[in-house]
Every structure is written in C-alpha cells, then in structure tokens.
Amino acid sequence: MRYRTLGSSDLEVSEISLGSWLTYSGGVEADATRACTEAAFDAGINFFDTANAYGRGAAETAWGEILSAHPRDSYVLATKVYFPMSDDPADRGLSAPQIAKQIDASLTRLRTDHVDLYQAHRFDTTVPIEDTIEAFQKVVAQGKARYIGFSEWTPEQIQAAIDLAGPELFVSSQPQYSMLWQAPEAEVFDLCAAHDISQIVWSPLAQGVLTGKYKPGQPVPEGSRFASADMAVSQDLVYSDAILEAVQRLVPIAEEAGLDLPTLALAWVLRRRELASAITGASRPEQVHANAAASGVELTEDVLTAVDRALGDTPVTEPTLAPGAEAGVKRR
C-alpha cells in the first residue's frame, strides 16, 4: 500500500480507503462489517471514511465499536455533516448549532474524542457561509477535529470559503470521480491544487459499473446497488446500454495490461496526483484486498490512450452538480 499526504495536513493516508455508505450503514451484517474492516488493516488501509447520515448513525456506531479496539494513531478517521439526521426538517445543514450538535453525536458513536477529518457533506446554501466557517473553526479549536474538508462544493463555493477562512482550514475535497464521471477535472482539481487541497474521491468504480458485472441489454439485477432507490448516482448517468457497452470495451484493455477491470479503474483515478485517496466499498474481505491491490499500479501512456478511445464521449466531463449539491453562496 502506498500513502499520500492529505493536502496541507500532516496526515498520511492510504491511496485506497474504505468507505461505509451503502454497506456498513445496514447493507451488510455486523460480522461482515468487522471482517472487511479488519481486512482493511491487513491490507495496509489506514483511512476510513464515514458520515453521520449513513444509516442515521448506524455506520458510525458500527465503526465506533470495531475501530476502538485499534490504537487511535493507527488509523485516520473521517466523517461528515449536512444531511438530515431525523424527520425534523430543521435537523440538517451547516448552521453553527447543527455542526456543534452533530460533531458531539458523531464522536459519541465513533467512541473517540476527535476525528482526523470533519467534512461538509454538501454546501448549505441556506446558511451564511461566515457562520459555517466559524463553526468549523471552533470544532478545530476545541480539538474535536484535526482538519476540515468538504464534499461536492462548486468552484464558486470553494473560492468563497477560502477567501473567508484562508487556505489553511480546508485540506480535502471529496467529489464523485471515475472513468465515467470526469467532471471535477474541469475546474475543481486545479482550484483545489492551487490551495494545497487534496481530492478524496468517491465512487471510483461508478457504484460497481466499472467492475464489468453489469451487461448491456440486461435488466438491473435484483439486489444490486442499482436496484436500490437510495442510489446517489442516477441510472441515467452511469447505467445505460451506451455506458455499459463502453465499459465492456475496457475489459480487453485491462486484460492486455495484466489487470482486472476494477484494478484498471482504480489505477486510472490514482494516476492524478491531485488525489490523496480513492474511497472504495466492500461487503466481503476479498473485495477489500482486491481493491487495495490497485495501489501502486502505474498505467502506461498506451493504456491511458486506449481507455480514452474505448470511452469516447461517454464520460461526464462538463462541470455539473452531483446529486444533493446546490449552487450558490449565502452571505450575512
């Protein structure tokens, strides 16, 4: 496993990290959650990414039990705040009271006195940005989080936050990014790199589409991720016959390079030095080890060119909002 520095922080994170969105929030049994987490340690993964909203606390609770058995300095722990935590419409967002309440609740569930990275799960266009910045600064000053990051913020929102907070507060950006969703390259990567903010990308395998297991002309398999109503990425974006046909064109490219398709896809995102880590999900320990094997794989220019030709104009490359994101900035 290789490691990269997370932005301007002193955190060294594994190139492949373990996420907990659809799996450890209730998608798999407790024994499988524990087995996958322990497999991550075995594979050299030290970066664990969760959120308070995953199962409304269930994922944090699961990891709180499992990770607390490991020395606190043996792993880097990240969580997030923004999405609803109850049926109360006010119980969401990035207001100062909400951030203060949710960081304490997360720490209780995670059984720790601090997280290494606390992230805004989305931008809150209903709260003055000054209030959000001050609340995050207070969380750091109190020692409840070492560093702050954000997920799916637009360039306008990123720049506005940097203008207020300076370049030191934020160390990471978490966008959706894969062979099929290349939009962040257009603006977000360069803007963040200019301020020493690393990318931690989610859905590098496009919710499993880039494993090649879905075939064109066939219905969505029952029980698969794309059969779930909770998918954050719509089928129109990464699940269509045109996309699945492009993915199948990638299979022989991977084979010629001596790789399987998931390893090719993970190595492809890790080719960008703006990335610190690619977040992967797993429901079985062998998936954890297979994903971890992508760390350190270097793709040749011939392979990268072949990938571009196979995909053609399939990927989303224009700046666009990911599900749950909104444009705009509110000020006092």
UniProtKB/TrEMBL annotation:
One of its GO terms (cellular component) is cytosol. It comes from the Bacteria. SUPFAM superfamilies: NAD(P)-linked oxidoreductase. One of its GO terms (biological process) is monoatomic ion transmembrane transport. InterPro entries: AKR_Detox_Biosynth (IPR050523), NAD(P)_OxRdtase_dom_sf (IPR036812), NADP_OxRdtase_dom (IPR023210). Residues 15-310 form the NADP-dependent oxidoreductase domain. Keywords: Ion channel, Ion transport, Oxidoreductase, Transport. One of its GO terms (molecular function) is oxidoreductase activity. PANTHER family: NAD(P)-LINKED OXIDOREDUCTASE SUPERFAMILY PROTEIN, NADH-SPECIFIC METHYLGLYOXAL REDUCTASE-RELATED. This is Voltage-gated potassium channel.
